Amino acid sequence: MIYLENIGRYFLMLQSVFSKMTKWSMLRKLIFKDIDDLIIGSMGIVCFISFFVGGVVSIQTALNMNNPLIPKYLVGFATRQSVILEFAPTFISIIMAGKVGSFITSSIGTMRVTEQIDALEVMGVNSLNYLVFPKIIALSLYPFVITIAMFLGIFGGWLASIYGGFSTSADFIQGLQIEFIPFHVTYAFIKTFVFAFVLATIPSFYGYYMKGGALEVGKASTTSFVWTSVVIILINYLITQLLLT
Amino acid sequence: MIEVKNIKKSFDGVEILKGISTTFEKGKTNLIIGQSGSGKTVFLKSLLGLFTPEEGTILFDGKDYKTFSDEQRRQLRTEIGMVFQGSALFDSMTVEENVMFPLRMFSKQSKSEMQDRVDFVLKRVKLVDAHHKFPAETSGGMQKRVAIARAIVMNPKYLFCDEPNSGLDPKTAIVIDNLIQEITDEYNITTVINTHDMNSVMEIGEKIVFLKNGVKAWEGTNKQIFKTDNKSVTDFVYSSDLFKKVREVYLKELED
């Protein structure tokens, strides 16, 4: 029952987020601040993980190809497919649910605990629009993060396969180009846009409606990470079923 | 003036406010007192519109809040200043930005006019060198002053304070009490203070509403509270030996 109640409350929250807009001059500053916190601030970890996981994907693929009849370019092919279809959009989004999601939940949750949200409401500010809308706009730049993750993942795979002696550069690049379906990139970006919305709104929901003190802020962050991940995985399944089958 | 008529509020079936009626007068410091759990905060938040009472009416200068349109409610909110118990300053903003926040949100003043107004109110609360400090870099007393400055920057008609001197040393608490009273007199506003600080009751309680278990158990002034024989009030106000003695001395002086 509590799940149904939360789902209903989540959609009511979304309704409030898009009503009674805050002054543009204020929103602009908040959006830039959120771009800095949520997008720029995540680049380091995204680059690091993408590069090395791309490398690992390529090494694992190469190590599992024992049959000499399997062409060497498959290392590049498998790396490209894994990175573009799943690793960059989905795996990075799960990581972002931990990094960005818990940041959003704890910052909004702390504002709730310290009555800063009440202060906004008393002043006549639509606190949901003020707090959540800029995060949704800032995270609409999330596909750029994923583009970089895709590039670095493939680049890491290329470096690992060449310097590990698993494939030649020419084979790897041939694998990247072979049977390339542009719609797969479109599919990845459609997912990314949906995940960006989920990343902005579910952690905000758990932060905004939390009750209690500092301990509950920590609990809300954990719950928000769990549910953001669950929703991302479910949506991933649904979009894949809808777009790729 | 704020008139409250028979407001009732429950949470999860438990009745917290059981029909409270009172009047908070303009130009006076009106105090709501009572033990923890007596319903003070719920009462204050109901006045502020943060909670919606199930029954009763709240009249702001004769106008029923329930009948207000969204635009009228928004307008009313710009006429309300609130000082929260923990100050509720925005952590990511400097003192100056905190005070300027309501102006930037709602006023059509130019940047220089806003700056002048912020400088004026910060000077009024005796904070002159704190403009660029963040709340975390200031003391509890300074944070309260910033909260007061933010509450009065829009020239409010109504000022609400929730435990304005909790967590402050006695000297700073008196400074904050006096500041609130001066501002109330100066701007002729309706001030409602939620407190259980007996110094505040004695010093600035021009009108006192005593709540007990969600009902109004007594109301009067800080002069009348010395003379009352209402047991609930005397048990609460004169629970310490010091205040018992203060009361005895006061009553003796009156007799003499």
Automatic annotation (TrEMBL), chain B:
It comes from the Bacteria. InterPro entries: AAA+_ATPase (IPR003593), ABC_transporter-like_ATP-bd (IPR003439), P-loop_NTPase (IPR027417). PROSITE patterns: ABC_TRANSPORTER_2. GO terms for molecular function: ATP binding; ATP hydrolysis activity. Residues 2-238 form the ABC transporter domain. Keywords: ATP-binding, Nucleotide-binding, Transport. Pfam families: ABC_tran. The keyword Acetylation does not apply. This is Putative ABC amino acid transport system, ATP-binding protein. It comes from Kordia algicida OT-1.
